[in-house]
């Protein structure tokens, strides 16, 4: 009886997937083959492989890589430190809370912080460097992006590190391994799934940023997300915007496949190689 009733419980799930995942992707794919007059064309795909859009794609990947790299650089030691603290769940909550704040509010806050008369420039003037143009630069864009995405990198890494069996680390040290060797051969490999999950949570959204690029980078940084917004809202070329979106979805699937992992369980880690 349970087996017969199970499909009924899955109906809302299938409807949600069909209406809000499959249907939008199919619609985007359909519009990608239309020109400005609504006629079938392959020009959008030909135009995407022009030098302009290829440079745009490489630029988007470069900025997404930098954001992800600096996020890992900050998140890994932070997550490791959290696992050693007494009130780690409280500290983790304090790190996650800023992610609940609206993205626009955080972005506008940094406009004030990095502005010519903001606290950042006042500090630079106080130490003798003088006022600098911090807003509308690559630095401000990457800094604010890392700040926004850092909780999504810390959380999966923390979960992976927190699940580590301390006996494995003790055994490594008992066998004469140094702290660096223990980290490289034991800690990092066993917690690599957390890093992969963090990369998915940061790299993929970083490819499609457009709010931060407009407000913080002043459109000096153009990403795939910015290009899609311009095609849909400025030039009204829905076909080209959909084509860029198709490639963005394709890139997302490739990244998810490349960073995917299977939990093999603790027994797998105990095998002697």
From TrEMBL:
Coiled coil: none annotated. The keyword Membrane applies. Keywords: Cell membrane, Membrane, Transmembrane, Transmembrane helix, Transport. It is a multi-pass membrane protein. The chain crosses the membrane at residues 12-33, 61-83, 90-114, 134-158, 198-217, 237-258. Gene3D superfamilies: MetI-like (1.10.3720.10). Residues 57-259 form the ABC transmembrane type-1 domain. GO terms for cellular component: plasma membrane. It comes from the Bacteria. Belongs to the binding-protein-dependent transport system permease family. CysTW subfamily. This is ABC transporter permease.
